[in-house]
Amino acid sequence: MSEQNNSRREFLKAAAIGAGAVAAPWIWVPRRAFAATTDFHKSAKHILVLYADGGMRSPSLFNADKIRQWNPHVDGQGNPTQPSAPGTEWDLGAVADAAPLRMNSWDDNLPPLPAVTGDITVLGTVDHEPHKEQSDANHQSAKLRMTTGYPDGTTGFLAQISKHHGLYAGEGRFTAFPPVSIGGGARIFGLAGGDNFKFRSLFFNGPEDFDRGGPRSFHIPAPSWAEGFAARQDERYTARVSPADLQRVGLYLDSKKNMGRFRDILAAPMLNILRDGNVAAELGTNAQLRDAFGAGPWGPRVALAIRMFQLGSPAVAVAVGGYDTHSNEMLDFPPLARDLGRQLAALRYVLPRLQHPDGGTYWDHTLVTVVSEFARDNTERSTGYNSAQGSDHRGLNGSRFQAVPFMGGPIAGAKLYGATDRETMAAKDEVFASQGVLAMLSDAVGVDPGLFLDEPAITRAYGG
Amino acid sequence: MKTGVFLLLATALALGACAEDTDPEPAPTPDAVAEERDVCEELQFGNAADAAMCPRVQRAGLNPRYADATTVCRRMAIDLLGRTPTWTEVEGQCQGKSPAEMVDYFMSQPEYVRRHQRRWADLFQYNDGFSHYRHILALDELVAQLYRGEVNYARFGELALTHPGYTGRHFGEARVAVAFRVFLGRDAHPVERADMVGLWTIWQPVQDYDADYYFQHIDVRAYPPICQPPLDELLCHSSVYGDTTVAIPLRDPDASSYRNLIRPDDLTEDEWEALRAPGRILAALPYYNEHAVTEAMDRYLGWGAAAGLPEVRLALLRYFEGVDLDVPAMERELLTSHLYLQTTTPPENEVAPLTGEAPRWRYSPVKFMDVETWLDSLSLTVKRDFGQCDHRFPYVRNGVHPQSGQTIYAPHAYPVANPETNTPDFTYATVARVLGGCPDRLQQFRFTGTGVVHALDQESILQYLCYLPDATGLLPGGHFNAPFAPGADRETRTALFRHQIRSFYSREPADAELGDFLDSTDACLASSACTPDQLPAQLCVALTQGAEFLHY
Predict the structure, then answer these.
(1) How many angstroms away from the CA of A100 is the closest CA of chain B?
(2) Same domain, B152 and B16
(3) From the CA of B63, how many Å to the nearest CA of chain A?
């Protein structure tokens, strides 16, 4: 795929088609692999997608050795990158924190992101539309591409997991913990239109939903007369319903039946991360999670995601906004980037210390990635910003190529696949379709991506 | 307690007793077909859909199977108004009334227009983070005109697709894709997207400063220099459905002049006429009108009726075109057809050969309330107003007044938390969003969900509402009549039960369920496990959590 596109792109350059000219029309034939699953099928039991909502300037963190036009986030000496773990092929941005953080509850220091880059592999050229001269730069359609696989998708990635994962077959539909979206921007991962409505993911704003109790906190046990009467009333109603309609009505009734179990789960102290409840040590205390992940925009939500894994969810998407830095990026981006970097460092620290019920640790069984709608461009060569001290997204090289990191037990780490030119941000070799990232995540957790996607899974990210 | 029987103008009932046919249907002979056609032509149907269904009904020797008045009343109220009917409406506007009279009543209510405005807000994906709120207001009013019958469907498409409320919300090929999805029911083919995007190129986003509300926003302007030769053929032209270039003359010969950045309000009628080409192109496509009919059939009839009953779809399309694409008239025709009015109970002993079950068109589907219908119905019945969602503005624009330093909000329809600053109260919206309503159409789209946690959220909300101390709607007599005192005697409990069944289910209680309630509460009261004053709230929860409340 990538070689074919690259040769076409080179051909067009050679033909000297000017800017704005219509490119020679291509017919893009998605490559559906003969075998939709890969050797890495079921390589993970949990996937965590960190979604930087708005279009994150990801090369500034994960593919950072670029001229100022593409990475203005430099250190005091003007360096766009900083030293990282030995053997790391990709360039960590200077914007990331380099100092270890003290964690009293662990009685230890949290190694910063530069120390763990050897466990992270980066795809430097993730592109929504590799076949087009300009890629999708529209927030809505690009977001849908990243979350559903298609610019007008109606079923989100998490809903597809809910629909196809073996955990949810039969009674599992009501007993297994569903996929979860955390943070408003992550809702879209759980989109479930039309007949797929029953596969919608669970949604939480964040740990605050459990701190105040939220809408589920109000519960008055029904008296026995009412319980019995209500059940018989439902029987009388369903006796009048057609077999065709009974499926939908039955789904509601089955949901009611299983409410009690989930009510208990959602009241568990381990979910009230903002407070020190009675949590078994082997799960990691709430204080420990707060210490590791911090109290920034990401921290509490990522900590909650860990809890969702511990409850059995196979897939969680966490979103934090603020990355659409059309202006004032010099001030707005670094704290967000540092907080995001801290999450990767904290995941590398915490997950190996949590035992998994199936043996090994959560690190062994979890795959983590960071994605966004696109990266950013339309910046001055000398400053790296637009006229408003920010950056835009026009679908050209700077914004079309996201630098997407992967980490976790199945990932070999340290590798960079898909290099970009330091001066122009043009792809130097491989280009990866963003849909292929979703395919990889799906395949990793055991769901055949061929069921809902056209692109094959990108196995290069596993490295090795 | 017995409800009236429906009669239609159509004389299908005159066909005689139902002759149920359980054998596989033999192919009709030419004489039989001719006879059926003659019979159907002889019968003077007052409804296009009923006339189209005659061959299916006649051939099987079947009669239409109508739901009772209260069932249809509830169905119409939810479909047309987005809430359950009050018992006053059931008695006054439904019982003893013809379907046409019922439909006319419901369609005359302002909630009918608002329901559709909400639907189109989802279709167009209003979001005042993109479009200026004034443009959203104007586009929303255009939708109202459509459902008041003041503008026909072709003109609506022509106006809507170049309305700044639309062009400011969608950019690039999304303008084509959304237009196709909304008006033709399919995504635009990549060739259509790439070709027709030029029809909207002239609309460019511009950062603007709104002096009234002191905030920056992105607006959309017509920018004619971008569509001047030689770029017009490249950037502002479409050829896939006829050669069309969308361009208007420069206001100033200097292309860079600000006079050439034209606010929508400043465009002349001739300029608008030129700019509205994309809507006219779409409205002229063969499937444009038909999609409106298809969509209405699927929405009101359910079960994929439009695909399953092509003869009805065609008949309604002809009707729609015959009434000059008047959408309310088309909906009325559909809603007064026996397909909409029929019972949800499948007929016994009628079996379709392929499925082994009753033919799908012989009974209406059971539908599921959407979130805002659910909340509004509860609010109405409990007699506690807890607000609403403003379908036009998921979040409300605000800015800082330069003199006072206060944050001031743009106009909206949310409850107001602070009249001085017009601060919206998002309590209702927050609850609705948890359950899939009141979407922001950017990170969340409307869904009608179910599932364990969804049911848990609903239970909490129901319990909260039913146990409100001032939930006077739970008691017979309500707020304005003599107060009702819950009592332990059967007569009082029967009155309570009848009131809540009427309120929540829009029907009279059946003997079996009344008996069950009385027997169950007899035991509870006798054991002192409950007291009479607890019964209204407990019954409220039991009934509103029941499948019958959520489904219709």
Answers:
(1) 35
(2) no
(3) 19
Domain match, B494 and B540 both:
yes
| Residue B358: per-residue pLDDT | 81
Asked if pLDDT for residue B405 goes beyond 70, the answer is: yes
Task: Judge contact between B370 and B446, C-beta under 8 A.
Answer: yes
Q: pLDDT digit string (tens) for B302-346?
A: 888 999 999 999 999 999 999 999 999 999 999 999 999 999 988
On whether residue B29 sits in a domain, the answer given is yes
Inspect the interface and report whether the beta carbons of B445 and A258 lie closer than 8 Å. Answer: no
Q: Which CATH architecture has domain A36-207+278-462?
A: 3-Layer(aba) Sandwich (3.40)
Of A53, A197, A241, the CB nearest to B448: A197
* Residues B134, B239 within the same domain: yes
In chain A, which residue's Cα lies nearest the Cα of B449?
A197
Task: Enumerate the residues of chain B whose CB falls inside 8 A of the CB of residue A258.
Answer: 452
Domain boundaries, chain A: 36-207+278-462, 215-272
Q: How many CB atoms lie within 10 A of CB B327?
A: 21
What was the pLDDT predicted at B50?
95
Round to whole Å and give the CA distance between A255 and B454: 8
**φ and ψ at A105, to 5 degrees?**
-70, -20
> Hey, is A200 helix, strand or coil?
coil
One domain, residues B132 and B271: yes
* Averaged pLDDT, A379-403: 92
Domain that holds residue B417: 371-434
- Taking the C-alpha atoms of residue A100 and residue A109, their distance in angstroms, rounded to an integer, is 6
Confidence band of B207 (pLDDT split at 50, 70, 90): confident
| A247 CB within 8 Å of a chain B CB | no
Distance in angstroms (rounded) separating the CA atoms of residues A56 and B474 = 52
Residue B399 is assigned to a structural domain of this protein: yes
Q: Does B463 touch chain A (CB under 8 A)?
A: yes
Average pLDDT over every residue of A70-83: 96
Alpha carbon distance A371, A369 (integer Å): 7
| B476 and B536, same domain (yes or no) | yes
| Residue A27 in this model has a pLDDT that exceeds 60 | no
Residue A29 binned pLDDT confidence (cut-offs 50, 70, 90): very low
- Report if residue B270 sits inside a domain: yes
* Residue A397 tokens, joined: 């090289």
* Number of structural domains in chain B: 4
Q: Which H or E element spans position A367?
A: strand A366-372
Residue B294 belongs to a domain: no
Can you spell out the DSSP letters for B311-344?
HHHHHHHHHHHHTTT-HHHHHHHHHTSHHHHB-S
Separation of CA A376 from chain center: 19
Domain check: are B347 and B378 in the same one? no
Query: Are the beta carbons of A302 and A363 closer than 8 angstroms?
Result: no
Predicted confidence (pLDDT) at residue B19 exceeds the cutoff of 70: no
Indicate the pTM of the whole model: 0.77
- Per-residue pLDDT band at B6 (split at 50, 70, 90): very low
* Per-residue tokens: A395: 């679908």
What six digits make up the tokens of B116? 């559709």
Q: Please tell me the distance from the alpha carbon of residue A178 to that of residue A203, in angstroms, as a whole number.
A: 10
pLDDT at A196: 77
User: Same domain for B333 and B232?
Assistant: no
Cα separation, B123 vs B133, in Å, equals: 17
Task: Please give the residue that has the higher pLDDT: either A278 or A440.
Answer: A440
Q: Which of B130, B167, B170, B456 to mutate to test the interface with A (most CBs of A within 10 A)?
A: B456
Residue B61: pLDDT band (50, 70, 90) is confident
Least confident of A38-47, A249-258, B78-87: A249-258
Residues B88 and B234 in one domain: no
Instruction: Residue B345: list chain A partners with CB under 8 A.
Output: 240, 242
- Tell me the mean pLDDT in the region A400-415: 96
Are A243 and B366 a contacting pair at CB < 8 A? Answer: no
- The per-residue pLDDT of chain A, averaged, comes to 87
Residue carrying the six token digits 């034209």: B262
